[in-house]
């Protein structure tokens, strides 16, 4: 089975939210959609965290050479 891209997972998650908000699904269908959505959310959060950990900011060190620093979001400071 082909691994879904982050974008495909997000699209499906948005579709699931829309279906659940409509309220037309039976209880069983709603539970199935909720379960699928929970798995997609976890996969998206894991991928985002992995990407966040890879992001670094290049700055100049004392000798002018690039230095890698951990990237810090403005709202985390």
Automatic annotation (TrEMBL):
It is an enzyme of class 3 (hydrolase). GO terms for molecular function: exodeoxyribonuclease VII activity. GO terms for cellular component: cytosol; exodeoxyribonuclease VII complex. Keywords: Coiled coil, Cytoplasm, Exonuclease, Hydrolase, Nuclease. Its EC number is 3.1.11.6. It is found in: Cytoplasm. Heterooligomer composed of large and small subunits. Belongs to the XseB family. PANTHER family: EXODEOXYRIBONUCLEASE 7 SMALL SUBUNIT. This is Exodeoxyribonuclease 7 small subunit. It comes from Vescimonas fastidiosa.
